[in-house]
Amino acid sequence: MPLRFPRRIRFFTHSLPDLASFNSSSPFLSRLLTFTSNHFAVNFSTQRPNGGETRRSLIEDEEELSNWVTDLRPGTLRVNLTSDDDDDEMDRGRGRNPRNKVESFRENRFSSRGKGSNFMSRGLVRDREGYKGLRNQQRRGGDVIDEESSDEDVKSLVMGGLLSEEDEEEEEDGDYEFLKKKAVSAFGFDKQKKIDVKSSDSYLTKTRFDQYPLSPLSLKALNDAGYETMTVVQEATLPIILKGKDVLAKAKTGTGKTVAFLLPSIEVVVKTPPTSPDNKRPPILALVICPTRELANQAATEANTLLKYHPTIGVQVVIGGTRLGLEQKRMQTNPCQILVATPGRLKDHIENTPGLATRLKGVKVLVLDEADHLLDMGFRKDIERILSAVPKERQTFLFSATVPEEVRQMCLVALRRDHEFINCVHEGTGETHQQVKQMHMIASLDKHFSLLYTLLRAHIADNVDYKVIVFCTTAMVTKLVADLLGELNLNVREIHSRKPQSYRTRVSNEFRKSKGLILVTSDVSARGVDYPDVTLVLQVGLPKDREQYIHRLGRTGRKGKEGEGILLLAPWEEYFLSSLKDLPITKSSLPPTDPETVKKVQKALCHVEMRNKEAAYQAWLGYYNSQKMIGRDKERLVELANEFSRSMGLDNPPAIPKLILGKMGLKNVPGLRAK
Ligand SMILES: Nc1ncnc2c1ncn2[C@@H]1O[C@H](COP(=O)(O)OP(=O)(O)OP(=O)(O)O)[C@@H](O)[C@H]1O
């Protein structure tokens, strides 16, 4: 029986001698303690700068965050109303770095209002109302969030804006490293078992699945699927998981992480005696959480492949963008043992679907796919709610291609203390695939559309079976680029959060099977989606962060195949390259764009609908406003946005509703047109 720690531990100051010095200018301890919030509800005393002692639980701080979000009035909210705000994948990630964002929020917003005992329910209910209120305001005040956007999307919008605002605060964190070492050692994180896996260039190993004690029916399904030997991550994790351990695993994109966590999960279900058919609420035994709908669908498909010869084991998917009622009905008429879900929708079901809370009490295995993303600020509340709904006695698997240091500590909210961290990736150059050629190009914004067209034409000419993904910064910019490339007679499809789920699923399936196609997409396709044989990933504009760059690039070069990645930036975005300096990305000269091409692109731009250009302009402004390096100088930001507007062929930048400008903190900034 693995060691379990009590759920509530009182943390006394004398156990860390210099705890009193962890005051508002040294937020590391509170940051660290928050990571442990699920397993340890920690109380400690701190000395406020004004001298008064405040007894606070860090969980109350979380509630404070919720309360503050709820209390936001339109005029006080500086938020990216216009970008891919409701993009379920992208915007949540804006709050990723807890060090800069959450803590500076805490320092600035802390008050002793909250009392921690029922923090989750209270915080969540308030959050939800707050999001709904905001959403209504937005509908009224400028129609910036469309009907498709889920409450989840709205939440991400609020959090994204909130945190990017906080981002601008400078944090006095000079003694950070020292404190980090002390606290990490005090909590035993330095004893965390880490296994570095030696990986060769090949993603497959020589180890066969039948060398492990797996059920014959699973082996038969693996064989049918053509999975003869294990991939590196499968070989490294399976024996440890089969021993009953919790695992945090980091392995490169496209190397079979889905099978690595699904196979042992299925084995747990196979070994669990079936419940009586009269049981109206049979337990869910394995719960898999994925950050996007596409990914959840994909994981469920893979699960069904592995369950081919286990007809009594069922899989169900609950994702946003579909009617809750339909999913409820499906769950009641055909109860499953394996549930794959996106976090927000699962939280909705926990709160609204009769019997689900009871069924979740049966969970034996919990999986967080793209764990670093799920544990970042944007998803935090939903994940906390889910963690509180499943038993503490369970096995947990966290998988991702990227696990930044600060997120690794956050993983402790979900994992047992004796978990193993299995790292199949060598830091730096090892994080991306050697067989994928990476290049960056720097060109002024006015050249981007012509360059994009030139690069695509050249790639198509060189690759009969071309299959390209173009990543854009926001949903509305994605739409604009897809419209433009369509006008230029390229074979294009688009996926982003403003498209209905049925459309997204259809296009995703089409792209999976096709060749000779270009998919223009926002970050909803950045992580996990397994499109085979993508020949080129083209990223236009600033990726959200280094991790997002790696995940987007990871859509090509999967399963050991060749691939190519191009990052197209404007000169003022070049600073981003410093975060990639350990990756094998080289500077490429710009391909010549002949005047005919430029003319052709300009003509095509004239055919793109004005309202799409307006929406793209607003979205662009919102996205870059949230980027610390660019958004901090508002006048410069507007100059750049107007440069983008001119690149779309507009003489004057589109006018933006005053309410939205206010919400973005851009009121009265010269160069903007308000309406
Ligand atoms: N043992 C195996 N042998 C051959 N192919 C495999 C094996 N395991 C998985 N695959 C295939 O490898 C491909 C990539 O797998 P998967 O999508 O799980 O990668 P991933 O590591 O999760 O990538 P990402 O980090 O992008 O999410 C899939 O098409 C899957 O079917």
UniProtKB/TrEMBL annotation:
Pfam families given for it? DEAD (PF00270), Helicase_C (PF00271)
Instruction: Provide the Helicase ATP-binding domain boundaries.
Output: 238-421
Instruction: Give UniProt keywords alphabetically.
Output: ATP-binding, Helicase, Hydrolase, Nucleotide-binding, RNA-binding
Query: Where do we find the motif Q motif here?
Result: 207-235
Write out the GO MF terms: ATP binding; hydrolase activity; RNA binding; RNA helicase activity
**Catalytic activity line of the entry:** ATP + H2O = ADP + phosphate + H(+)
Task: Tell me which residues make up the Helicase C-terminal domain.
Answer: 455-602
Stretches with biased composition (Basic and acidic residues): 100-110
Region (Disordered) location: 78-153
EC number(s) in its UniProt entry? 3.6.4.13
Where does the DEAD-box RNA helicase Q domain start and stop, copy by copy?
Answer: 207-235
Coiled-coil segments? none
| Superkingdom as given in the UniProt entry | Eukaryota
Free-text comment about domains: The Q motif is unique to and characteristic of the DEAD box family of RNA helicases and controls ATP binding and hydrolysis.
- Write out the function statement from the record: RNA helicase.
Q: Which protein family is it in?
A: Belongs to the DEAD box helicase family.
* Name of the featured protein: ATP-dependent RNA helicase
Taxonomic classification: Eukaryota, Viridiplantae, Streptophyta, Embryophyta, Tracheophyta
